[in-house]
Amino acid sequence: MARREELSRFLKSVRARLDPGDLGLPAGGRRRVAGLRREEVALLSGMSVTWYTWFEQGREVKPSAPMLERLCKALKLTQEEREYLFALAQHRPPPLALAPDEMIRPAAQQMLDSLTLPAVIITEYWAVIGWNDIVTRIFRDYASYSEADRNLFKILVLGDAYREDEQTFRDMVRRLTARLKWDYSRAANAEFFEGLIEEMSEKSEMFREYWALPDVVAHFEGVHSLDVEGVGPIAFHHTSYALEEVPGQRLVIYTPNDPESAKKLKKLTK
């Protein structure tokens, strides 16, 4: 009951702060309260007036995610407010934002630059948007790629960097494909993933094989070895971490997987 009461209070407060004129609605006429009327919210979000009224009153109605997304748009909710509404209405986080933020925050880039380990920041669509100098020296220079080609999934699966050992490469592709399935299931922009899946199916027989399997992995993690010029092979263990400030972006950090690899990496970063 307390949660439904808070949902009702929240919805009333956010519609009260909106100016009808800013939304293309007639601003004239006598209004008993500030902001939008319930019927106006219903109109903007494509709902019936009765359904929205019941929802705002905290009755036991069960909105779908698309309905809530339309309501978020109609009420001009911030990302934090959108997450709050989903938590109150569905007791779960919302799907990833319809318009993913593909710009790296200055503070995030500063953090990357301060690390003594290779690290990148990618979006939920696997686009690499930030990296540090150690990554450039050890893995690849993402600045030399066009923005359209900075897709980490395609770079890893279609590139030649990890093909020296066939079984190790197969294990990596299988793991990455299982993770891609997880991201596909959660992303609001399914069209992007459908295009990527179609492209990968055309270009990679191995991808087609593993996409047909039921494997699904929810964590971006694994071990791989890379032959680095001047020092030889270095084994890295990579893990990813969600960036709380920007839903959908994640930080991937590569740490040496054994003492010998740590020694070689230290030599490179002196």
Structure notes:
With 270 residues, the chain is α+β, with helices and mostly antiparallel strands. The protein folds into two domains: 2-90, lambda repressor-like DNA-binding domains (434 Repressor (Amino-terminal Domain), Orthogonal Bundle); 106-268, Beta-Lactamase (2-Layer Sandwich). Helices cover 47% and strands 13% of the residues. Strand 3 (221-228) and strand 4 (232-242) form a beta hairpin. The radius of gyration is 24 Å and the shape is elongated. The mean pLDDT is 88.
CATH topology (level 3) name of the largest domain: Beta-Lactamase
Structural class: alpha+beta
Q: Write the H/E string, N to C.
A: HHHHHHEEHHHHHEEEH
**In CATH, what is the class of the largest domain?**
Alpha Beta
How would you sum up the global shape?
elongated
| Percentage of residues in strands | 5-15%
How many extended strands?
A: 5
- Contiguous low-pLDDT stretches (5 residues minimum) are none
Total of domains: 2
Strand order of the largest sheet: 2-1-5-4-3
Terminal CA distance reads 60 Å
Average predicted confidence as pLDDT: 88
Number of helices: 12
Q: How many strands, which pairing sense, and closed or not: the largest β-sheet?
A: 5 strands, antiparallel
Radius of gyration over alpha carbons? 24 Å
The helix fraction, in percent, is 40-55%
In CATH, the architecture of the largest domain is: 2-Layer Sandwich
Précis, in short:
The chain has 270 residues and is an alpha+beta fold. The chain is 47% helix and 13% strand.
Write a concise keyword list for the protein shown above.
alpha+beta; 2 domains; 270 residues; 434 Repressor (Amino-terminal Domain); Beta-Lactamase; single chain; 12 helices
